[in-house]
Amino acid sequence: MAHATRVLRSEWTKATTVRSTVWTLGLALLITVLVGMGLSLLFKSTYDDLAPTDQATFDPVFTSFAGMSLGQLAMIAFGVLLVSNEYSSGMIRASLAAVPQRGLFMGAKLLVGTVLVFVVGMATSFLSFFLGQAVLGDLATSIGEPNVLRAVVGGGLYMTLIALFAMGITWMLRSAILSFSILIPLFFMVTPILGAIPATQDAAQWLPDQAGTMIMTVVAPDRPYGPWGGLLIMVAWVVAALIAGYATLRTRDA
Amino acid sequence: MIELDGLTKRYGSTTAVDRLTCTVQPGVVTGFLGPNGAGKSTTMRMMLGLDRPTAGDVRIDGKHYEDLRSPLHHIGALLEAKSVHGGRTARNHLRVLAQSNGIPERRVPEVLDLVGLGSVANKRPKGFSLGMGQRLGIAAALLGDPKILMFDEPVNGLDPEGIRWIRDLMRHLATEGKTVFVSSHLMSEMALTADHLIVIGQGRLLADTSMAQFIRENSRSYVRVRTPEPERLRDALGEAGVTVAPGGDGTLEADDVDAARVGELAAAHGVVLHELSPQQASLEEAFMRLTAGAVQYQSHNAPTGAAGGPEPSRKEQ
After folding, report:
1. Measured between CB atoms, does A5 come within 8 Å of chain B?
2. Between these two residues, B257 and A208, which has the higher pLDDT value?
3. All structural domains of chain B with their residue ranges
């Protein structure tokens, strides 16, 4: 136990003594909140011009979360860099020479990363919601309405899981460039497009972000799983990525 | 103490390290010598548990590396490849390593001062020169005050001042009773620092011997004599059973005899000597001869089969 505590402290120091941590987490929060506020402002000022059907389906929570799809990229960047920094710098050799128990090393880094993204993710989600609602004014909903608190907490959980997924992929690929070139197009283009095309919708709804974002919706779309079921699907993806990452770390030369 | 037992590393069909068995003894500087590409760095990475051996095993103080709870207390290593995050200050880099091994943080400024980086403790290593980078790597190796220190090609690319600093440091560490294991592809560098030698070529052990014995076995020592009467001297020495061969430049070379005896024999026969000097073939030559058959990147018309030199585990080609 003392051994694990030591390694955790070391990983905490590692994460908090490089600039990329502050940059990526700071950007994740800022982008998500500002885009959410911007879109809320846009809706607020143009609401009266909207078609009645659009007015009827207007979702104030969803609107204030509009920045999530962009902000998640910064979260992914944090997850990727936390791991890939070890490989790109060569620090991995010093790290493993100091902590040769690779499972412990990976576990400590994941825990530190999880704590950071959980705190920042939750702050991002709650700030996005409250600031977005403040901008929406009389169009706003409140945290006490049905499913709203679940959606806001869900936003923080989603941010945490997407960063963990990125960490798992990077443990497997061991390179920032490789990981980014897979993850960024995947979550920014591929899955949203597949999710929008009717022919591929059925398959796309099982992808990690498509399933995971269900937790952030107040009015759930018609899917074979509910919000928590969707989150569970995303958890399964994260676990799979982490297992693959651990297998790589375990067997490959550093 | 480091024990290697049948250590082997293969990459596909290439064998980088081939059944290496040897022991690195405590309290001396052991030179780990071999031509470029002989498998030195791979061996060192396997010692640190970074690369997994294909077969065989390494023990540090009797334990497998991954069973060490605080490895930095046992062994400190400076690897050839950079192993520092360029954006984390020198001080924080060392704090990270200290924390992971339960080393008190007051040790960080101590080792920084020891390697002369005290003034740049809060600077990012990406702006460091090669020499400063090496010093930071050495500070990390010394952090846990380990009994074993391992340096992979520590002087590569350093300026003369840096080279001397590292050489002095290694000798100093050995006088403190530490085990120092240092790799090099330069015999001349080893001759100045090492007490013991482990020589490998194409991953195979070529020699595991004390420096003194290596010199004895691998360098021909002879006495060079210059005289206006070479014929008389040759006869005089021949009578005493000393073999003499003509050297270059009108000199004679007497093998297996010390200079005093040659001088006495010359005096007894009244032969005038203009020069009488003990000579030793350079260690570099001996090293080249030893590894001649085991150089990976040599040209194809080079002679195969080393002239002399022990080759305990020669594999059929």
Report:
1. no
2. A208
3. 2-216, 220-280
- Closest-approach residue (CA) in chain B for A103: B66
Name the percent of chain B lying above pLDDT 90: 58
Say yes or no to pLDDT of B312 above 60: no
> In whole angstroms, what is the distance from residue A110 CA to residue A181 CA?
22
pLDDT band for B301, please (50, 70, 90 cuts). Answer: very low
d(CA B258, CA B242): 10
CA distance A130 to chain B (A): 36
* Chain-chain contact of A6 with B102 (C-beta, under 8 angstroms): yes
Residue owning tokens 């060569």: A90
Tell me, what's the pLDDT at A57? Answer: 86
Confidence of residue B311 (pLDDT cuts 50, 70, 90): very low
Question: Which of B2, B82, B99 is the best substitution to test chain A (most A C-beta atoms within 10 A)?
Answer: B99
Note the pLDDT tens digit of each residue in B128-153. Answer: 998 899 999 999 999 999 999 999 99
Interacting residues of A136 by C-beta distance below 8 A, sequence separation 6+: A40, A43, A44, A60, A63, A64
Tokens of B135: 């010093």
CB nearest B96 (choices: A13, A89, A251): A13
Judged against a pLDDT cut of 90, whether residue B305 lies above it is answered with no
Quick one: pLDDT at residue B293? Answer: 67
Chain A residues whose CB is inside 8 A of the B68 CB are 100
* pLDDT confidence tier of residue B302, bands split at 50, 70 and 90: very low
Instruction: Give the integer Cα–Cα distance in Å for B302 and B295.
Output: 10
Mean of per-residue pLDDT scores for chain B: 87
Domain B220-280 is found in CATH 3.30.70.980 = yes
- What is the pLDDT averaged over residues B86-94? 96
Q: What is the pLDDT of residue B316?
A: 37
Distance from CA of A176 to the nearest CA of B (A): 14
* A17 Cβ under 8 Å from any chain B Cβ: yes
Please give, rounded to a whole number of angstroms, the shortest distance from the CA of B172 to a CA of chain A.
24
* Minimal-distance CA residue of chain B relative to A1: B69
Quick one: three-class SS letters along A130-197? Answer: HHHHHHHHHHCCCCCCCCHHHHHHHHHHHHHHHHHHHHHHHHHHCCHHHHHHHHHHHHHHHHHHHHHC
Percentage with pLDDT > 70 across chain B: 92
Domain extents in chain A: 2-251
Handedness of CA A118, A120, A126, A128 (dihedral sign): negative
Give A49: exposed, middle or buried? Use CB within 10 Å, 0-12, 13-18, 19+.
exposed
Whether A28 shows a pLDDT value over 90: the answer reads yes
Task: Work out the number of other CB atoms within 10 angstroms of the CB of residue A152.
Answer: 22
> Distance between CA B133 and CA B126 in Å, rounded?
9
Specify the CATH architecture of the domain B2-216. 3-Layer(aba) Sandwich (3.40)
Q: Please report the residues numbered 32 through 51 in chain B whose beta carbons come closer than 8 angstroms to any beta carbon of chain A.
A: 45, 48-51
Does B63 touch chain A if contact means CB atoms closer than 8 Å? no
Residues of chain A with C-beta less than 8 angstroms from the C-beta of B71? 97-98, 100
Any CB–CB contact under 8 A between B80 and chain A?
no
